[in-house]
Every structure is written in structure tokens, then in C-alpha cells.
Amino acid sequence: MTLDLFGNHTTDDIANPHADTLGPGASVLRGFARSRLAVLQADIDAVIAQAPLRHWLTPGGKRMSVAMTNCGEVGWISDRMGYRYGTHDPLSKQPWPAMPASFVALAREASEAVGYRNFAPDACLINRYTLDARLTLHQDRDERELGAPIVSVSLGLPATFLWGGLQRGDRTRRVRLEPGDVVVWGGPSRLVYHGIASVEGSFDAQAVRYNLTFRQAR
Ligand code: MD6
Ligand code: FE
Q: What start-end ranges are recorded for coiled-coil regions in this protein (predicted)?
């Protein structure tokens, strides 16, 4: 058991036999959500029916290739004014849909499986990738509570995830993420640069990749 840099969460991923370690405080739980994929997908579809997927503009004015929406008390927003969390969907002016119970349970169980206690996400970002979508190398640093981990769940098509270092120019490792894989990371790895290099599938199929990321944003 090691105390992380922020002192308020512990990590013990070596104790979990199904966890691949990415770095200190960061693990891939292979297939952790596999038995729940149908329920999760139905709940994603219900959120999207209330808060449709959309392509945010970056602060520089570029349309993101990944389509996004949110559920939970706050949602991640990007536009010309910058990246931030907000309580309302800027399209509908309504509060973001509530986090489905299946999401809350998965985020809690996955974080506990690698030793993070009392993870209480208030934000869930839903990302949808078509075959041409990419997510360039970035840090997740718009959250107020950087002592809390992030839990990330993959559904649909497999993807090549890039896992870098604490500097943008650090070497990156390519990690294949399959549907049902859950990545949990925090502690000394919380600000590691990462991205999605590609999504694998054939262009004739109508398939997409979904990713859920749970955060304690405020
Ligand atoms: C994705 N994930 O897997 C993109 N960010 O589609 C992320 O950007 C991410 O997986 C923070 C923590 C975990 C993640
Ligand atoms: Fe991220």
C-alpha cells in the first residue's frame, strides 16, 4: 500500500491479479465491465436521448472529431471561451441528465478494486468515436479535485490508447482497449498525458466506440 502524492487516496493495484499496471496509481482492469455492457449501452442511449451527442469547438475554434455529452451534476463543456464544467447543457439549457445507477455502481466498484476509497464522481463525460475520430494527447486538469482518480470505461469498437508521461513530449506507450476494459488512474499518474490514436473497425460496419469517464470535478 502506498500513499499517493496528494495523501488522501491509496493505491494497491499489485493486489489485483486482473489489473495491468500503466504507472503508479494507474491500472487497466481487463474485462471488468464485460458482463454489464448491454445495461451500460442501454443507459448511454437513454442519456443521449435527453442530451444529444455534439461536437464541441475547441477554444481555438476547431470542431472536435469525438462527439460528446454528459450526465451527472456537472458536465464537461468546450467552446471558444475555454474548457470547463457546467451544471446545464448549453444546447437544451436543462440540467445534465442524472447519472444512471449502473454507472455509479461501476465507477465505485472499479475504483475500489484498485484501492481508491470513497470515489464519488459528480461528472460523467460520454465520448463517441466513429472510425475517423481521434483524441490528441492531453491532460485532464479541469477538475478541482485532482486528488481523486478518474475511472474510464470502453464500449464498442476497440481502440489504441496512448499513455505518455507528465510532459507532453514524453514517450508514449500504445495500449489496446477492448470493450469492457476499465482504466482507473490517479495519484502520481493523475496528470499523465494520454489520448486515442485510432479506433479499429471496418468502414462498412455501423459500429462506434463509446468511452465513459467518471470524475470528481468540483
Ligand atoms: C478515451 N479517455 O478513452 C479517452 N481521460 O476515449 C480519456 O481521455 C481519459 O480514459 C482521463 C482519464 C481516463 C481517460
Ligand atoms: Fe482524458
A: none
Question: In this predicted model, what pLDDT tens digit does every residue of 34-83 receive, in sequence order?
Answer: 999 999 999 999 999 999 999 999 999 999 999 999 999 999 999 999 99
> The sheet that has 173-177: what strands, in order across it?
135-138, 194-199, 159-163, 173-177
Residues with CB under 5 A from ligand 2 (ion): 140
Q: Atom 10, ligand 1: which residue's CA is nearest?
A: 152
What residue ranges define each of the domains in the chain, with the CATH number in brackets? Answer: 12-215 (2.60.120.590)
60 CB burial (10 A radius; 0-12, 13-18, 19+) = exposed
27 lines ligand 1 (CB under 6 A): no
Q: Which residue, by CA, sits nearest to atom 6 of ligand 1?
A: 211
- The tens digit of pLDDT for each residue in 85-132 reads 999 999 999 999 999 999 999 999 999 999 999 999 999 999 999 999
* Ligand with an atom nearest the CA of residue 211: 1
